[in-house]
Each structure stands twice: as C-alpha cells, then as structure tokens.
Amino acid sequence: MDDPYHNNVNQQMTEGGDYTYTQDGGRHDGYPYQTDYPPQDEDAASDATEGADEDDQMYEGEYQGIPHPDEIKEARRAARIEARRKARMAAQQEEEEENLPEQYETIMEDCGHGRFQWMLFFVLGLALMADGVDGFVVGFVLPSAEKDMCISNADKGLLGLLVYVAMMVGALVWGGLCDKMGRRKCLIYVLTIDLVFSFLSCFAQGYGFFLFLRFCSGFGIGGSIPIVYTYFTEFLQMDKRGEHLSWLCMFWMFGGLYASFTAWGIIPHYGWGFAIGTQFQMHSWRLFILVCLFPALAALIGLVFMPESPRFLLENARHDEAWMILRQVHDTNWKAKGEPERVFTVTNIKTPQTQDDEFIEIQSETGTAFQRWTVRQMTMLQQVMANVMSLSAPELRLQGLLLVIVWFCLAFSYHGLGVWFPDMIKYMQYEEYESKVRVFHRERVERFHFNFSLVNQIHREGEYIHDKFANIEIKSVKFENSLFENCYFEDIKSTNTFFENCTLKNTVFYNTDLWQEKFKNCRMENTTFLHPKKGCHLNFQEENDIVIYMVSFLGSLAVLPGNIISALFMDKIGRIRIIGGSLLASSACTFLLLLSFSQGAVICWQCLFYGVSVAAWNGLEVISVELYPSSKRGTAFGILNGICKLAAIIASFIFAAFIGITKIIPIFLAFAALVCGGMVALKLPETREKILS
C-alpha cells in the first residue's frame, strides 16, 4: 500500500482562492507552489495595443502638461479593474471565513482523537504544572529566605507582590503575542525565560538581585496558562473539548502537590546545602527552587517535538504547513489505532487571505538587518494592539464584560481565602503559644549557671548577679526592666528574643547572636561583645513548620474529586451550569468558615472550599477559549488571566489585613464575590455545541 507521506503533493489554486492538494504517482521536483495572479481583463488587454502605431505622433497638448485622453482612459480602466479585484477578494474572504470553522471541525473529526492529542496533552500538562509549582515557590521559601538574606517585613511582602505583578504582565504580553507569533514558539520562549531566571535565582545572594530574577521568572511563566489552553483547544474536536481541557486542568493540581511534597522533603534539611567561603551559601531552600525547575524543563524538551497549531497557521495563510501538520495528526492517530491504511483525504482547505505577512515582508525588503528587524517588531506590536482594540467590538463587548466579572469574582475569593487559610492557622498557633507563656516577676538570681533552654517566657524587673548563660537556646523570651550585673553569655542561639529597658553592667557576650537589634532602650556600662554572630541566621526547626506544608498538600489534593466530576460532566450538562453551580455552592461553603475555631477545622473547610470551587475554574477556562475567534483567542485569554492576577493581588492585601481582627469581613467579602460571579455566569452563552470560530 502507498504511504501518503511518500506520495507527491501537487497544489493548485482553484477559482475563488481555494488550495487544492492532489496526490499522484508522477514525479515532480520542488515543493508545491501556488499562483495568485488575477485574470487579465479583456478591456485592459485590448488597451495594450490600442494606438500603438501613433506613438511617434506628437500630442499637441504635451507641452502644456495636459494628459493624453488615452492615458486618462487607461487610468480609469485600471482603477475599475483594481476595484473589481478588491470586491472579489472581499467577497471571497467573507465566504471563506464563514466556511473555515466548519471545515476545520470536519478535518479534526476525520483526524480523530488519539495518540497525538495524548502526547500533546502530557507536554502541555507539564507546562501547566510548572505554572502551578511557581505559584507555591515564594510562599514556601520565604520563611527561610527572609532569615538567610535578612529580609525585613516590608520587603518580605514586596517579593510576593512583584511576582504576581510579573505574572499579570506576562499573561497580557504573551497572550497577545501568541496570536501573532504562534502558540508553540511563544510557549518555548515562556518556558525558557522561566528556566533561565529561576535557575539564576537559586544562586542570588542579595535580596535585590533575587527579587529581580524572580520578577523575570514570573514574567515568563505568567504567559503559560493563556498559551497552553489556546494551543490544546485547537487540536480538539467539538465533542472532546470540554472533557479534555478539564483533564488538563488537573496538572495545576499536580504542580501544587509536587511543590508541597518537595518543600516538605527538602527545605527542613539544612544539612543538604553547602557553602563556598562566607560570600556564597547554598542552603536547602535554594536547592528546592532548583528541583522545582524539572516540570518546566521536561515541558520544554517535549515541546521541541510538537508542531505548531494548524489553526493558527491557517489563520495566517500558511496553508502548506497546516496541511502537513493535519496529515501528521491524522496518520499518528490512525496508525496507533491499527488502521494505517486510512489516507488523509482532505484536498481543499478554505482559508482567509491576510495581508499581515505580506506587509511585513514588503516593508522589510530594504534597509539593514537591524532596520528589517525593527520594522517586523513594530508591525507586530501594531497588530497586537489592533487585536486588543478589536475585542471591544459590539459582538464581543457584552460577553467580554461578563467574563471579566466572573474571572475577577472567582479569583478575588479564591486567592483571598488562599491567603487567609494559612495565615489563620499561623495566628491560631501564635495564640496557642502565647497562652502558654510563663511570666516571672521580680525574680533575683545570683551565681547561677543557666545550662538549659529558655522558651516562651517573660521576665519583668528581675535581677541577675554573677550568672552564666552558656550553650543554650533562648526562644521567644523577653526581658523587661531587668538588671544584669557581672553576667557572662557564651554560645547563645536566640529566636524572637529581646531586652527592653534593661541595664547591663560589667557583662560579657561571647560568640552569641545577641546584637544591637536585640536591645531596645537599654543602658550598658562596661559591657563587651566578643566574636558576635552578626547578621541573620537560619533556624530550620523554627522557620519551617511542617503544618504549613501539610496544609498546602491537602489543599492541592482536595481538588481531585472536583476535577474528576467537572471533566466527566463538562460536555454532558454544559459549561454554564458547571460554573454557576460551583460558584454558588462555594459561596455556601464560606459560611462554614465561621465555625473554624481550631486548626483542624480551618484545614477541613479549606479542603471543602477548594474541592467545590475547582469546577468553576475548569468551566471558566473552557468557555474562555471557546467564546473568542482563533485570531483573538490568546489575546482575550491573556487579558482575562491578567485580571485574575490583579484580583489576587487586591485580595491578598484585603484578606491579610483582617487576620487576628475579625473573621466576618473576609468571609462576607468572599461570599458576596462568589454569589455575584455565580449569578453573572448564568448570563454567559453556552458553548458546549459551538464550533471554534
């Protein structure tokens, strides 16, 4: 049997601009070509010889600058020919734009769903997993990084803020670029940027440099979600889109599980790091960042073997490449199903003719290499901005506004509670710890050797005469209005320990981390500090609470049932019911948070909320790629994802501000946002049986 890959391919343009592919046994050299010359008008052809024998005659009005009547006639005829040609092209383009979606859907049904889609599924899933991992990295490394690099509380909040801002900008930029440069090319750029700058951040010793590198990494990975969903959608037929896009969403959950598990296993092990001198230190939290690069690296390697989206190529008049890729998809799937004899029978692909590529090439034929590059980039920027502005067209304006409201409401409540849950657990731990504090008032200790740790204590108006504190840990201890006279401190490790309004006389501190910031309004007389441990020092037993890793792990695992249910029913009951039902059910779950009086209750309600709300995320991501045409799909999804990041930034500040003050306001805000989003979602158009436009 003949292999379709080895048959010669001839391409002819039929009347109307269609590209027809035929296969024959003849031998032809070269690549299939196309002709696009308009038929010559009969009048124009006759004019070419009209009056040829009168060329040598002098026209008497020539010296007066008056055009010859024949020249006027020829110009008018040329204008009529050009007008007719443009009218034919406009009618042809309108007809082809109407036919392309139906024809492409028929081609994808003929290609089937099989091995090719599953290979692409796992490659893009790894890219989505890399985005999920990146969302957890900062939260896990911050407790260690703030000690390792002496980060203040103000700077600590700046790190999380800038990473989200970078991801928001990345979603906007890369979403628009993937509609002009291609899905595959942009995703390769996104993953490469994330890998390079995340790798460099592992070795950054200064906080400013670390902040810059994480910002660049966030700018890269921020564009992955719009590209991944747009890319995968264009390889799926209509009856498979909802289910398989929902399965793809599970990889974000896998990213959270991977980050939580590796952080749990790596960060608390301080001995896994190493140091080169005193300037370069590679602690275990840096090793954790390095391990988090594996999903992005695996996705980048797999993406090298994947083709560009044929729908994107057709939209950009790259007919030959699209046809070859569609044939590759067809042959890969049917050979895997045991039917290699099935031949790709598509011979006619209708595509809209665009002028963008021609414009770029025409403008780039002259000038230096830099000038040609500049023209291409400026033209592409103009096209992207035009694409963004076209989203405000009347037919897209209403559905765009509804989607913006739903995305914002869901992101505001989800990310706001995502900040509130772990912070609430930490606050409960702090309250429980504070309730067990031991208070010593006006104690007098003389000639005593403290060889045991001091933990969670307050000493007020005490007197310590000729005492020795050696080889001990002082944790969460405060000395207030106390006197230290002829005392000796040696090899002390302190955490959250302070001296306030104390008097120190003839006291020696040797090899301790008790330094200036530990003494507030203290009076020192003949007090000596020898070999002090300046700077910040890591204490992994203190800074890495296993409960936080467990909370993140359980929260990520809790979305598994919701992912499975939404995938199985997305195409059966529709996107709108999934989104609206999930949002309204999630709003009901928020009231259970009023019953969270213990750490266990907070963890339980967190898992329930995540498990219910994930269905809304899946449905929203599916409907967002289905509502917009292919030429604007990445741009629109990028804008929506950027709004999601903006809502997350706003929510993190608002919800964190009420920790330890009240639970009612955060819960009410989350409830109101979810109800609003759920009601608006019910007004969205159903896309379950919609062909990609």
First-to-last CA distance: 37 Å
Low-confidence stretches: 1-56, 355-364, 540-544
Number of strands: 19
Broad shape = elongated
In words, what does this structure look like?
Residues 39-59 have a biased composition (Acidic residues). It is found in: Cytoplasmic vesicle, Secretory vesicle, Synaptic vesicle membrane. The protein is α/β, with parallel strands linked by helices and 693 residues long. Among the domains are: 112-309, MFS general substrate transporter like domains (Growth Hormone, Chain: A, Up-down Bundle), CATH 1.20.1250.20; 438-530, E3 ubiquitin-protein ligase SopA (Pectate Lyase C-like). It contains 22 helices and 19 strands. Strands 6, 8, 9, 11, 13, 14, 16, 17 and 19 form a nine-stranded parallel sheet that branches. Strands 7-10-12-15-18 form a five-stranded parallel sheet, with no helix packed on it. Mean pLDDT is 78; it is low at 1-56, 355-364 and 540-544.
